[in-house]
Design goal:
The protein has 443 residues and is an alpha/beta fold. It folds into 2 domains: 140 residues, no CATH class; 285 residues, P-loop containing nucleotide triphosphate hydrolases (Rossmann fold), CATH 3.40.50.300. β10, α10 and β11 form a beta-alpha-beta unit. The longest helix has 25 residues. The protein binds adenosine-5'-triphosphate. Pfam families: FtsK_SpoIIIE.
Length: 443
């Protein structure tokens, strides 16, 4: 019985391998070339990519190709997902190689061992990375990236200045420096990890800069995501609707303007040269809730337009004044991501999006990667001056409590009068200390 299983597996393996070689799907080099040809990556006169070198590295194989004149790297990059899928097409549901058979211990029952191998293979997915340095480089990894990374405090120790941990790429620990790149767009379809990332961001900043960081949070998704942070000393305001958002933003605009005036008078270039330690993070979650386009209520539309103007101003001029904008949305459209904010937010963290068009709205023309990310919460495209696929660190509730616990403070409600001339504060009771209520009057 054992002998029969082994011999038929070997025979099947040999016949299958020969057949697949004939079909040109036997090895990744041939597959890549066939995928390129079938995906139309061929010049008019029929020229195709030509292999230049193949190198085996630790955990990957790199294929270096010459691109024929008339095709560009962007042509290939746009079809990265086609290559990845092509390299993962299964030969059959019973996909065992001779190499797999060498792992089986035939002294004990091979059936459960074969089942385990098949299950493991089912989970394995080849992932690729593409680069160009005059040659097209396609790196095919032996193992997929980890699909889970738990936050731990050693990550904070690896950060300097205004850096925060983001997670890991395939090769290294990834952090974002908010002094180098002040504003960030965070996008992604629902349940893909935006809120989890924002919690990591706020908790990390409070832990690293308890005396210097301030937050204004426009938590427009119902006020639950940031519930833990509401009473942190560093949180100036939590706005839960467009009316409260406008008041919080007007307060920032006023403060920003007086700071700008002072810097201009004193000939100060920016917050760093002024020696100011404080940074004020303005977090917008969810941007669609304050997008004015499509708003039918005239009054609400008017205040949403004002919110958009202030946010655009923060993105445009406030980086140098110490403000940092984190602008989040699950609806990646031109209406929710205003041009000025996009142009001034040089960092993007984009979780999976539903369409290639949405991915391009966030990441730029031809950048469809976010639509082809695996369905793994926390997996994202992180773009600064380069683009990397990352697995974001996940921070547990207990870790958040531990980091921010010492900074939680029950304070009296903010009661000053900084709302602007058309604004009257109302509803000054209750336990929510720094949320606002506005009454807008006609001018
Ligand atoms: N980095 C991560 N690693 C592992 N799991 C994660 C990660 N981020 C999020 N998740 C899981 O995905 C779930 C949804 O994440 P999250 O609440 O951040 O989604 P979201 O993108 O903010 O969704 P929505 O836009 O609907 O609010 C989390 O409860 C958690 O279980």
């Amino acid at each position: 019985m054992l002998f029969e299983i082994v011999t038929s597996l070997i025979a099947g393996g040999i016949a299958g391998t020969a057949y697949l070689k004939r079909q040109g799907v036997g090895d990744d080099k041939t597959r890549i070339e066939r995928i390129a040809a079938n995906a139309g990556l061929v010049t008019r006169d029929g020229k195709q990519i030509r292999i230049y070198r193949r190198t085996k590295g630790k955990g990957y194989t790199e294929y270096v190709y010459q691109i024929p004149l008339g095709l560009s790297f962007a042509d290939f990059e746009k079809k990265k997902h086609v290559f990845e899928d092509g390299l993962n097409i299964k030969r059959s549901t019973f996909d065992l190689s001779i190499h797999d058979l060498t792992d089986i211990n035939f002294r004990s029952n091979p059936i459960p061992q074969i089942k385990t191998i098949l299950q493991k293979k089912k989970k394995q997915k080849k992932e690729i990375e593409m680069a160009f340095d005059g040659m097209l480089k396609i790196r095919v990894y032996d193992e997929p990236m980890p699909d889970w990374l738990l936050f731990d405090e050693s990550m904070l120790a690896k950060c300097n200045g205004w850096e925060i941990p983001i997670g890991i790429s395939r090769t290294q620990f990834i952090k974002h420096d908010f002094d180098a790149i002040p504003h960030m767009i965070v996008a992604g379809a629902t349940r893909k990890g935006k809120s989890a990332f924002l919690k990591l961001l706020v908790a990390s900043l409070i832990a690293r800069h308890p005396d210097d960081v301030r937050f204004t949070i426009l938590d427009l998704k119902g006020g639950l995501a940031f519930a833990k942070f509401r009473d942190a000393q560093q949180v100036e305001a939590v706005a839960k609707n467009p009316i409260e958002a406008l008041e919080a933003l007007r307060a920032i605009r006023d403060e920003m303007n007086s700071r700008l005036e002072y810097y201009l008078d004193a000939g100060i270039e920016d917050v760093k040269s002024a020696g100011v330690k404080e940074r004020h993070f303005v977090i917008v979650d969810e941007a669609a809730q304050i997008a004015s386009a499509g708003e039918t209520d005239k009054e609400i539309k008017r205040l949403k337009v004002e919110c958009e103007h202030i946010l655009a101003e923060i993105a445009r001029v406030a980086g140098a004044l110490g403000y940092r904008l984190i602008f989040c949305t699950q609806y990646a459209t031109a209406d929710t991501l205003p041009r000025q904010i996009k142009q001034n937010a040089d960092a993007k963290l984009c979780f999976r999006l539903q369409t290639e068009i949405a991915s391009q709205v966030v990441l730029g023309e031809g950048e469809t990667d976010a639509a082809h990310l695996p369905l793994i919460p926390g997996r994202a495209v992180y773009v600064t001056d380069r683009k990397q696929i990352v697995q974001c660190a996940y921070i547990s509730s207990d870790d958040i409590d531990r980091l921010i616990g010492p900074h939680i403070n029950i304070r009296a409600r903010k009661d000053n009068d900084e709302g602007g001339k058309n604004v009257e504060k109302g509803n000054c009771e209750g336990t929510a200390p720094r949320s606002y209520s506005l009454i807008i009057s006609e001018t």
